[in-house]
Amino acid sequence: MTGTAGGRHCARMSRRVSAIAALRFAPCGGEASRSQQGLALLAAAAAFGCATGGPVGDDLGLFDPPRDGQSSTGGMTGSPPGSGGSNGAQGGSGGARAGEAGANGRGGRAAQGGSSGALGGMSSGGRSAAAGMGTTGGRAGTASGGRSAGGRTGMGGSGGRAGSPGAGGAGGGNAGTDGGVVSCSGSVPSNGSSHCSSNQSGNVGSQQWTVWSSGGGGCLITYGSDAAFSATWNNSGDFLARVGLALGSSKTYDQFGTLAADFAEKKSGSGGGYSSIGIYGWSVSPLVEFYVVEDSYNGLGASGTKKGSFTIDGEGTYNVYTHTQNNQPSIQGTATFEQFISVRQSARTCGHISLTKHFDAWKGFGMTLGKMEEAKVLIEAGGGSGRIDFTTASVTAQ
User: Fold this and answer.
1) What counts of helices (H) and strands (E) characterise the chain?
2) How far out from the chain centre does Cα 336 lie?
3) 50-107 pLDDT, tens per residue?
């Protein structure tokens, strides 16, 4: 290029560089000023080239379209935008934080309420002697933040069992075999029939009566079909009067179901040297004479060997004895046999007697009855002179 043309060319290049700097890099703060400074340097370089005859303008590649990843001196000016990219990354980080704040701004997922409180336990009322005392319901369940479920209402207490019948005192009563009450204040009917003998038996209603004495002078009085009898004696030796069941000597006691008796008595006079009021009977195979002693003219007691004691609810506590009779009168003639005896620890004049429970208790002491011959309400007196009225006297097998 000639010198004149080169001078014109250099002048044009300088003007173009200045125009580009004005158009492409309008003032944008500190970053634009640095770009303008870069172009000014380029313009100076172009002028220098014109003065020295070096490459200028297009020969410098100033106006070539930039290629990806390449710049000449423009690469130097691209460096500040690179810093701007770094700022953009910071802005991105800020955006991420803003996103977290946005999540927080939504308040997060609503907290779920606490699970409902456990139901109060269902409480069973205690039994009570009356209709059963109701208990309060379980406490209402509680939960933090959740709905609380109320406790269930407690169940009322079950009705208590009726108390055992009390032993009848004077004018009182005791439970009887039929679930009723044995009256202790009754009286025997009038117009009875007397049976005066040393050894005699008969029937009254469903019961059998027997009178026996080792001496003379004693009577048993029956009253039609009523379960009642009276007895009188006057120095009659060993005197026995009794009313109850004849059992036939073919079955053991447990084959009869439940054997029981009711009695109520009023006595006067004396019973001689010994006496027994209560239940009396015999078994065979083995031959055994047995007693359940509830009362006496002479105080309660027995001779023989004490085997122990036992209690029947609602009836009393009894001492148990055995005694051997050698060559004594029996339902099989003169014989040697055992006596089984229950003696109540405190006397009573009326009540219910659970015979089967006595026999079971005896078995527990090794005292085994044979096949049952009889079980009857008894008065036995060893002399003296007296009278007894049984206003109730019955034995049942059910």
Assistant:
1) 4, 17
2) 56
3) 444 444 444 434 434 333 433 333 333 333 333 333 333 333 333 333 333 333 333 3
Can you give the pTM of this predicted structure?
0.57
User: Cα–Cα distance between 202 and 196 in angstroms, integer?
Assistant: 12
- Told to judge if 315 belongs to the known catalytic residues of this protein, a careful annotator would answer no
The whole-angstrom separation of Cα 307 and Cα 321 is 5
- Provide φ and ψ at 23, rounded to 5°: -80, -45
On whether the CB atoms of residues 281 and 290 are closer than 8 A, the answer is yes
Start-to-end CA span in the chain (Å): 153
- Alpha-carbon separation of residue 248 from 87, 117, 382 (angstroms): 124, 72, 28
Please check the confidence at residue 5 and state whether its pLDDT lies above 80: no
C-alpha separations of 292 from 12, 16, 56, 331, 385 in Å: 154, 148, 150, 18, 23
C-alpha pair distances (Å), 1 with each of 29, 30, 63: 40, 39, 19
Supply angle C-alpha 351, 357, 363, rounded to 5: 145
Structure confidence at residue 15 (pLDDT): 53
Asked whether the beta carbons of 354 and 174 are under 8 A apart, the reply is no
CA–CA gap between residue 249 and residue 373 (Å, rounded): 4
Catalytic-labelled residue, pool 265, 294, 315, 380: 380
Which residue in 289, 294, 338, 373 is the catalytic one? 289
Active site residue 289: yes
